[in-house]
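sorry to bug you again but im stuck and you know this stuff better than me. below you get a single protein, a line of residues and a line of whole numbers that encode the local backbone shape. mainly i need to know what kind of three dimensional shape the backbone takes. anything you notice is useful, everything is just below:

***
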Amino acid sequence: MSLPPFYIVPLTHSDWEDARAYAKKLPNEAIAEVRLDLTPDADPEYLVDSLKRRCVVSSRRVSEGGRWPDEDEAGRLESIKKALKGRPQWIDLEWDLEIPDWLEAELTHTRLLRSFHAPPAVFDLEARLQEPPRGDAYKWVGHASRLSDNTHVKSSLAWARDHHIALSAFLTGNKGIVSRCMQAAWGGAFVYAAPDNAAASAPGQLKLGTMTAWRCHKLHPSYGLCGVLGSPVIQSAGPAFHNLRFQRSFKDLIYLPLEAQTPAEAMDAMKSLSLLGASVTMPLKETLSAILNFSAPINTMWRRADGDVWQATSTDAEALEFYIKDFQGGPVLVLGSGGVAKTSMRVIEKRGWPALQCSRRSPAPVADVARFAPAGVIQATSLGMGEDDPMPFPEVLEAALPSLRWAAEWVNSDATAFSAWASGAGLQLLSGAELFEKQAALQSRIFVTECGGL
């Protein structure tokens, strides 16, 4: 059976020489895709020849997320025909198209990839696999509107693998990242990745360097799934942090961003994806804790195997406790009212320090803050996650400043307005990066020790 390399990388560069230079450096497990719809003015034969045949040639219609006009089907097929003169290793032809005579004659040296891009909410892969068209490999692409949608491709990938069909089936969008990364573990033969130095060609498509660092091409069916549940999580530092530690521990686990806005969606995904470990972030820290009957906001959940009872803790609390034991005691001002703020309040109260909370729902009068004379302030709002976010409660912070000696920032960013203010004021600063590293290290230890996998 003919198989393409595991990663197919669409060359989306604006300059072809940049694209060609990048393609030359691709590892053995990757092959470039020449998207003729992205280079309509170039000579297709030249594009293929400049890559020395090692490429997949496709031309995507507008209705399938590409740029070739749907009404110019004749022109689209003509551009593919011209590319064939360069003798590419693979040609992508839509699932439902008849093989043209001019392509039939070239299939002695060019392999045929049959592809289908499903409309939203259409999951017809199982039916399509019953009578697939002639081809050497197959691609089916849907769209994920919920995390649990990823399971629509899981059983079909396993079936295709068992029947020796080279299939890639995955979902677009950030909620479909699971299907892309678990492709090999679920039985898929290949998957698409974005160039490291150019834009992705589809929503949810990860960089090649990211997927290789996470070793997605080396996953096998016994791998267990962990991840960060919440929204937004696509930029989370968790996957890079935990996957490296799983690899160093020789643990058959992978950790992925799991975009979920509601506790119902998270619970559904935890069950359908057989999740073994999860970092819980906003907006789920309180709501998911309540549904699972945990007494306090949690940020870490785990179980040994699918079907086991979930266990949970707050490594946020442990991290904060670790650092503030060396800070000057006394009253503490806590900004925010969410799960991290509640965790911070519990830690402060556990130490026996007076605490005053200030939030949008319950603002603290400036005069009260000045009288409270806090020694420390903990920034536990979401402000700072966006590049242009302002400083939280500036009047309150100015009122607290004369007595302040230290500050803690929960947002894991080097450039929050709060951090800049605290540093400028000469306060001892506990950064979001420090808190993240500590709580994530505690999480990794739990996942490696307690979750399934070898």
